C-alpha cells in the first residue's frame, strides 16, 4: 500500500519577510477566505479519495480558525496539527502515524493554503509512483489566476512539489525549497494537462503572473468552479499577450531567477532570506 499525504503550512510562526506580511491586519482572515474559496473545494473534488491532508497551524491561532479546522476535520477532509514549528523528525512521526501499520510507499505533496489542485492530481501522482525508486516529482504544467485572467504556466520546479519514496527513512517534499529538491533526490517530471492552480492576490509573499494568457474553457473540467471568475479573452487580447506580455514576463523571470541563483551561490539560502528581510523592512518602513 502507498500512503499519500498533502502537507500545508497554514500560519506557522515564521521569522523574516513572511512574518512581516502575516503580521498585517486581516492577513489571516483574507488567507482563510482564499483557503475556503480555492484550496478546500479542490481537495474535496479529488477523483482519488485515498489520501490524507495534514494542516499545520500556530498553537495561538484564534478561536474562529480552530473552530473552522475542527469542522473540516469532522468531515474527514483534513487533520489540523498545532505546532510552533515542524522539524523533520516530528514530520516523519506524523506521517508514520497516518500510515499506521502500513510500511509501504509514501507520497507527500506540498499544498499552499491559497492555491488549488486539478481534480485528478492525487490520482496522477499515485499512478506515476514507482516503488523502490525515490524521486522528487513535479507535474510541470499548471494555471495561474490573477483577477479575471488565466495564464498557462510550465514550471518544472513548482511549489506543488511531491516526493515519492518509502517509509523507512522519509525525506518528504519539505526537505528543502521546492526548487532545490534535486539536490536530495532524482527528479521525475509528469507532463499532461495542468495539475495545479496558483492564485495571485494582494497577500502573496513572492508569487507573480507568469505564463501566457488563455481562456478557461479547456480547463473547466479539471478545475470546475475555481475558474468561475475568469473572463473569456478576445482573440486580440490573446494575440497581444502572446506577442508582448508573455515575452516580457519570460525575460523578467529569467533575470530574477539568475539574480536569485547568484545570491544563493554566494550567501546561501540564509543570504537570500536576509536580503528579503531587508527589502521587506524597508517597504514596511516606507
Automatic annotation (TrEMBL):
- Indicate yes or no for the key word Transferase: yes
Q: Does the keyword Transferase apply?
A: yes
- What is the official name of this protein in its record? Putative rhamnosyltransferase
Q: Name one GO molecular function term.
A: transferase activity
Q: What are the UniProt keywords, alphabetically?
A: Transferase
Q: Please give one Pfam family short name.
A: Rhamno_transf
From which organism does this entry originate?
A: Terracoccus luteus
